[in-house]
Here is the input.
Amino acid sequence: MESSAMEGAKEWLEIDFHAPTRSVVQSLVDKGDTASLVKMFAPRIAFGTAGLRGPMGAGYSNMNHITVMQCTQGIVKYLEQTLGTEEVKTRGVVIGYDHRWSATGVDSEMMARTAAAVCVMRGVKVFLFSGMVATPLVPFCVKYKKCAAGMMVTASHNPKDDNGYKMYGANGAQLCEPHDKSIAALILDNLKPWGDYASAIESVRDSPLCVDILEEAKDAYFEEMAASLCHHADDNADSSLPIVYTAMHGVGAPYTARSFQAFKLKPFFSVAEQNDPDPSFPTVAYPNPEEGKGALELSFSKASSVKSPLVLANDPDADRLAVAELQEGGKWKIFSGNEIGMLLAHWLYRKAVEKGKSPSKLAIVASTVSSKMTRALALKEGMRFEETLTGFKWICNKKFDLQQEGYEVILAFEESIGFCCGDLVNDKDGVCAAAVFAEMSVQLYKAGMTVSKHLDFLYESYGHFISRQGYVLVPNPKLTVEIFDKIRNDRHYPTSVGPYKISQVRDLTTGYDSSTADNKTTLPASASSQVSLGLWTSPVTCVQHLTFTFDNGCIANLRGSGTEPKLKYYVELHGSNAAQ
Here is the structure.
């Protein structure tokens, strides 16, 4: 590995045109520091269904202009092979970026220009935004401009040293298997630069093939959002409900502010300390509102000062939404992703029916680890419900399939506070979800209700569901595999946990399901996704997922995250009443 790392470093020096990263690698080569070079160059950061994600820095193991250049060359080759060269040139691609920054100068904007330069060099039209954007604007533009693909440079809510490169297909959804494998192979076949990128990256915005449609895209996005999802503009304008919002040091504030404008909602109260983009995320240990109270302390303080009972929070790239509400005792309730999903699903169902739409042509899509409460809603009200593997790449491709069958998918969601309302985009969208949730809240408070009391009403109507989620950090992906293999015990799965008997076992990594006649899962087995996910750059990383159903109705899911070094667990119990 040391010799291959040294070879990789020398090869890097032949193609790296950026002085700061070149000097880092050159210094290590001169010193013969093979240990550091191994960390930088072995193994290569790999393209999976999550695209690329990993620490920023020099070397093939990290996120930087060279790895993005090589990845984009593979993507363009893939698009040419699947759509045809001329169609790719005509339809073009859209490229966005967030605010993440690196000391080497290889920030999100530079990586986006690098990707654009690759496309332009191939004669492909590029819609490259002139400023940082919320992630949902990219999949929206894929649909709006009928692009061949979209790319977004962001690491979402990952720690400050990380970055990522996400790809959307022509349907505006993230890629599913096996397309990622095809692209991964083409990347390896196209590692050598196609031309002189040093000058191309600097001048790419001057190319006639590079077009900035930022203002046009934002206008179209918010107009469609309001037209399709706003139902009570007059009430929104008249409401005195004060709402607090935090962007969590990300790019969301101007986008979510405009979504409020589009819905005629009164402006929210911003958490000033977290309102502007800041890639150092100075006020939070983790820039992820899903972490709960620790990430929302400043929001609660702001809410107290303006006497607001409701807090909305986006993650840094604004594709997720967290919500909290002040309770009668003075404590804050942070709603889980499952609870927000149910609230949104019921609201969107009601609005669709009020417009005269038939429930039989409405649908809800959720990941398999999300609460089954939305399934109960769909079944009781006569809607279609579909369950998918975890991740919006699966959720929104299923949504797209249902749309081709003539269904209107009112909500697609997963418990990790990701929500796709209506047909605005084919990915999770925290900007849109914030406006929809705020409008729903205005109607509840107008009726003398709170969000929490309304949720209790939904429990009484559709059954009581108690869910708990959590995770443990597992920095070494080999250990994650070892843990799951030990549980599998060569297919001698556990039959009980303490006094609680297990009635069914489903293994979405191997495709085994004890509840089916042929012992095969109805959902796709994810063993085929046992590829290196960019975050860890390890060839043993794979999507591990086990589900245990107990005699008492409890469902427990264990899975390894596809984008973070975490082993996650999800447990849910269901009863017809609270006591049960």
